[in-house]
């Protein structure tokens, strides 16, 4: 059967090179050296790129060394030609000073590869936190047909009969160790057992969240996000993804036809239902910015009023393997579409609408996926905050503990309003050096504030805002204090921090003039956070030297700082968002 693509394949410009037999010969010859035949490359079949995000230093995504084998078979079976190439590695836990630096770097690299080589469509292999947004950002810039193949989470972790989830177990064990309940050896055992197999974090941390967002945006096959990495279904969906991207190449089904304002609003709502990571806020804003779509604080607020229905750590109890068996993202999408919360008419990579994709999905475990009218929690989204310290910050309300609610949010007649004394740290070294200093006299009337942790300050914006109280308070049973910062925190954290405060201190935001001892009034009803400092005093402090930040240590750090915007706009390379559809033009010889 001869098929005609809706748009001529761009790879023809290389391998058929009209009028330039010399160039075609040059382009063709070197692919021979690993066994591709000229007949294949000149057959008119689409060349399908596979952006390989896994490696030994990207262990969360290393399963893709296997999944791509099945993806290649799917591509071949459907009449395409696979060509695998590396994506700049991004490993959340290990990269210093922070993996956030690499999101924009991997983005830049992928754009150049997709533009500069004879690639007609691409499989984006994703897993660890930022591999999903960087890949989708690039897909929008280039705008050739693209599909996400998630690597999947690890199996559920168990320690002495108790579920232990990635990251979350670290934060919880850290508190237990400071309170003297466990020793270092026990800490390490609990951490090891949270990681029982290949795959990415098994909590609803940033990795599970962003792969769920890709599925919710319609950019991966239904069910793709939550299949555990070692399951046989992972290989099967890799094969189906390979088959499907070939069809998408023929159909010219490009990201710009799928990623719309409506699909991003759907993603924000899905995020609340699953109890997703606070990192989704900058990442969704970044993906939208590269798709030419603006997401406002008001758009974020539309997610706040919705319920949490997925019972997964850190907001709930279970981990991703169990969530997958409960029906995963398709079951959640089905509930949200049926309730009229999501727009089911949006286009997806299957060529069908979201509603059509999930028509048969069902909830198979009522302990894990709750009904919308009997949720785990009402009004469980991100509260969008503003005030004299920043234009925008968020608070993840689904992780507010009973203890925190009782202490800070339940003053009769003043529910949701509290005042606290600021203790300000300049970066995480300062926090670690001073948090147990008795001179700070930290008690439960304090808020721990960290600055110098944003896009410019760190650089990259670090996951440090979920600061734990001094050991002395933990030993008294005080599990958490209010925290505030211009950095981020791990999606696996159960801290109800006020975070992603933007603009950051290093960009002259309000945290730059805050001083230890200032009183901060937090009004969750009005969505306000204000330091109770007089205007003339604020003006005076603005004349003082800015808080210190470290110098750039690499060329990329310097360039990143020069070109990246603030977190409330996604922290993207701002000049880059004007480039869209670059792959529709073919570069010169
Ligand atoms: Fe890579 Fe969590 S550290 S997925
Ligand atoms: Mg993280």
TrEMBL record:
Biased composition (Polar residues): 489-503
Family matches, as Gene3D superfamilies: IlvD/EDD C-terminal domain-like
EC numbers for this chain: 4.2.1.9
Domain Dihydroxy-acid/6-phosphogluconate dehydratase N-terminal: 45-357
Sorted UniProt keywords: Iron, Iron-sulfur, Lyase, Metal-binding
UniProt keyword Lyase, yes or no: yes
Ranges in a coiled coil: none
Dihydroxy-acid/6-phosphogluconate dehydratase C-terminal domain sequence ranges: 367-570
Organism domain of life: Bacteria
Chain spans, region Disordered: 481-504
Matches recorded under SUPFAM superfamilies: IlvD/EDD N-terminal domain-like, LeuD/IlvD-like
GO MF term set: dihydroxy-acid dehydratase activity; iron-sulfur cluster binding; metal ion binding
Stored PANTHER family: HYPOTHETICAL DIHYDROXY-ACID DEHYDRATASE (EUROFUNG)-RELATED (PTHR43183:SF1), HYPOTHETICAL DIHYDROXYACID DEHYDRATASE (EUROFUNG)-RELATED (PTHR43183)
Family recorded in the similarity comment: Belongs to the IlvD/Edd family.
Protein name: Dihydroxy-acid dehydratase
């Amino acid at each position: 059967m001869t098929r005609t693509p809706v748009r001529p394949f761009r790879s023809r410009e290389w391998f058929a090179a009209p009028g330039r037999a010399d160039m075609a010969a040059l382009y063709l010859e070197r692919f021979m050296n690993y066994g591709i035949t000229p007949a294949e490359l000149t057959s008119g079949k689409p060349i399908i790129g596979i952006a390989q995000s896994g490696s030994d230093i990207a262990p969360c995504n290393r399963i893709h060394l296997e999944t791509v084998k099945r993806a290649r078979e799917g591509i071949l079976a459907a009449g395409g030609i696979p060509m695998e190439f590396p994506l700049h590695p991004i490993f959340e836990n290990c990269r210093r000073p922070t993996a956030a630096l690499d999101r924009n770097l991997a983005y830049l690299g992928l754009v150049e590869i997709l533009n500069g080589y004879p690639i007609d469509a691409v499989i984006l292999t994703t897993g660890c936190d930022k591999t999903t947004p960087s890949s989708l950002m690039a897909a929008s810039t280039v705008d050739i047909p693209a599909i996400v193949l998630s690597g999947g989470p690890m199996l559920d972790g168990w320690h002495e009969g108790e579920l232990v989830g990635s990251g979350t177990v670290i934060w919880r064990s850290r508190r237990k160790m400071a309170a003297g309940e466990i020793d270092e050896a026990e800490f390490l055992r609990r951490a090891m057992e949270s990681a029982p197999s290949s795959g990415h974090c098994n909590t609803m941390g940033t990795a599970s969240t962003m792969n769920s967002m890709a599925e919710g945006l319609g950019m991966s096959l239904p069910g793709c996000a939550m299949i555990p990495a070692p399951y046989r279904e992972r290989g099967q969906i890799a094969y189906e993804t390979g088959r499907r991207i070939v069809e998408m190449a023929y159909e010219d089904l490009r990201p710009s036809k799928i990623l719309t304002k409506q699909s991003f609003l759907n993603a924000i709502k899905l995020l609340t239902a699953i109890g997703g990571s606070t990192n989704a806020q900058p990442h969704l804003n970044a993906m939208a910015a590269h798709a030419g779509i603006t997401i406002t604080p008001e758009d974020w607020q539309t997610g706040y009023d919705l319920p949490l229905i997925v019972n997964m750590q850190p907001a709930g109890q279970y981990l991703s393997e169990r969530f997958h068996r409960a029906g995963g993202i398709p079951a959640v999408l089905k509930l949200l579409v049926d309730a009229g919360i999501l727009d089911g008419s949006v286009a997806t990579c299957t060529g069908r609408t979201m509603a059509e994709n999930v028509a048969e999905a069902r909830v198979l475990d009522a302990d894990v996926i709750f009904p919308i009218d009997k949720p785990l929690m009402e009004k469980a989204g991100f509260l969008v905050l503003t005030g004299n310290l920043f234009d925008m910050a968020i608070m993840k309300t689904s992780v507010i503990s009973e203890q925190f609610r009782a202490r800070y949010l339940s003053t009769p007649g003043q529910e949701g309003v509290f005042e606290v004394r600021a203790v300000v740290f300049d970066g995480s070294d300062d926090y670690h050096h001073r948090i147990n200093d008795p001179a700070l006299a930290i008690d439960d009337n304090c808020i721990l504030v960290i600055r110098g942790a944003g896009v410019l300050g760190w650089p990259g914006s670090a996951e440090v805002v979920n600061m734990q109280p001094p050991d002395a308070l933990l030993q008294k049973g005080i599990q958490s204090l209010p925290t505030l910062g211009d950095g981020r925190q791990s999606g696996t954290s159960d801290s109800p921090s006020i975070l992603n405060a933007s603009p950051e201190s290093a960009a002259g935001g309000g945290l730059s003039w805050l001083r230890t001892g200032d009183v901060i009034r937090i009004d969750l009803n009005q969505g306000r956070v204000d330091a109770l400092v007089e205007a003339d005093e604020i003006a005076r402090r603005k004349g003082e030297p800015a808080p210190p930040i470290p110098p750039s240590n690499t060329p990329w750090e310097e360039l990143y700082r020069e070109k990246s915007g603030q977190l409330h706009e996604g922290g993207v390379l701002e000049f880059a968002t004007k480039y869209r559809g670059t792959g529709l033009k073919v570069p010169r010889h």
